[in-house]
Amino acid sequence: MIGGVRSTAATAPQIENAKPGMSRKDFLRVLCAELSNQNPLEPMKNAEFVSQLAQFSQIEYLDQAQKLQLAANVLGRSVKLKDGADSTPVEGIVESISFERGWPEICVGGKLYQLDSLLEVKEDER
């Protein structure tokens, strides 16, 4: 998930201390544990199983939509983000959004960054 993003604009929303969510892998692990530990005399009904999968798919979709919205909102704006393993702060303008790896990433200075590397979104200077 996204964490630690703040805006220097007085009216811009802040996205600080966002809690990480359950990944698909975590969900499937819990579901498998639930299925393997259920009472054989009262197994989970197919409708319950399908309902849980549908709810998780819906949550995943909403998470992706939120990330896409954030990426679209920072397009063309000046940002500060951490770069790689050494977490060196980098500043620049978000030039584009990429979906090459299946999730939105922002391009700053010709390099792709994940949204969770955002540290700050600066106020528009318009």
Structure explained in plain terms:
The chain is α+β, with helices and mostly antiparallel strands. The protein has one domain. It has helices spanning 24-36, 46-74, and strands at 6-7, 78-83, 88-98, 105-108, 111-114, 118-121. Strands 1-6-2-3-4-5 form a six-stranded mixed β-sheet. Strand 4 (105-108) and strand 5 form a beta hairpin. The protein is elongated.
Short description:
The protein contains two helices and six strands. It has 126 residues and is of the alpha+beta class. The chain has one domain (6-37, 44-121).
Cα shape: elongated
Instruction: Report the order of strands and helices.
Output: EHHEEEEE
The average pLDDT is 75
Side by side, the strands of the main sheet go 1-6-2-3-4-5
The percent of residues in helical segments reads 25-40%
In this structure, how is the largest beta sheet organized?
6 strands, mixed
Radius of gyration: 19 Å
Q: What structural class do the secondary elements suggest?
A: alpha+beta
The portion of residues forming beta strands comes to 15-25%
Kindly state the number of beta strands: 6
Instruction: Detail the poorly predicted runs.
Output: 1-19
Count of runs of 4 or more consecutive helical residues:
2
Overall tally of domains: 1
Quote the distance from N terminus to C terminus: 30 Å
